[in-house]
Each structure stands twice: as C-alpha cells, then as structure tokens.
Write a structure and sequence with these properties.
This protein is α+β, with helices and mostly antiparallel strands and 153 residues long. The chain has one domain: Aminopeptidase (3-Layer(aba) Sandwich), CATH 3.40.630. Helix content is 34%, strand content 25%.
C-alpha cells in the first residue's frame, strides 16, 4: 500500500451521486458495452438505494476519489423462506482489479449480508467475464449448477 494514501470502503452517501454516476456509466457502457440509461434513471436508482430498504450501495474511495462500487438488492427466497441479497454489481476501476481492495469491497458486501441475517448472497456475471469468475472462485464462491438464468426484455 502506498504511504499517505487513504483507502475507504463505506456506504454510498448523497454527496457521492456525481462520482457514483460516473462509475456506473463506466460499468454499464464502457465495461459491459450496454447502452447507457438516461441519467435521471441512474440518479433515481441511486436515490432509491439511499433509503436502504430495497438495497444498499457501498463505495471504494482512494484519497477522496470513488474508484469502485458494489450494489446489493434485497429480496426473498421461497426455497429458503427467508430474505436474501443479490449482489447486482461489483465494479472497480481497472487499476484496482485483482487487488486486496477489490477483495475487501466484496467482503464488505458478504459481511453485511451475514451481519444482517440474510440467508445468502447471490450474483451473476457475464459468461465472458472470465476474470470475475476467477476472482469469485478465489473468494470461495460456489458456482451455481441447479438453475438456469433467463431474462426478458
């Protein structure tokens, strides 16, 4: 770690809207090559997560600059008859990938779910995102085998 550098992982706050919006567009448009949603919708999503009822966002900060974020959404599982969390996003700028900081951002989500009594934390990643798949295996995550994921647009 660099001397004099302050890294911080914390819950996103209203003053993070601009930096978080920029990171989310990097993630959506640059990383996953998807069309960018209207900025109003991104801001509405961020604001919705500030109330912490439907989800929560954590940010990774390097000397006051946001360099990563993770999003948890809260739902339920009929199979478990309990609440579960979906880690919808785990994104860090390229310089932070495969780093201890990326691991700590992931563990912040995992620990939050454990501390709050969620039955499990689940997530998906692109079949092409081999780096993320390797990262999650290193973090002792178990790849699902029992369910096939579908979407409708």
């Amino acid at each position: 770690m660099r001397v004099g550098v302050i890294f911080l992982i914390r819950m996103a706050a209203p003053e993070d809207v601009t930096g978080l919006t920029e990171l989310m567009y990097e993630y959506i448009v640059d990383f996953y090559k998807n069309p960018g949603p209207p900025v109003e919708k991104v801001h509405h999503l961020i604001q919705t997560l500030f109330d912490n009822q439907q989800g929560k966002q954590f940010v990774l900060e390097d000397n006051g600059q946001l360099v990563g974020f993770a999003t948890l959404y809260f739902t339920f599982s009929t199979m478990k008859a309990d609440k579960i969390a979906v880690m919808n996003d785990l994104y860090v700028k390229e310089a932070y990938r495969n780093s201890e900081l990326e691991s700590q951002l992931y563990l912040t989500c995992k620990n939050y779910c454990t501390e709050q009594g969620y039955a499990n934390m689940t997530w998906i990643t692109s079949v092409n995102n081999k780096r993320a798949q390797a990262f999650f295996k290193e973090m002792n995550a178990v790849q699902g085998k029992d369910w096939v994921h579908f979407s409708i647009y």
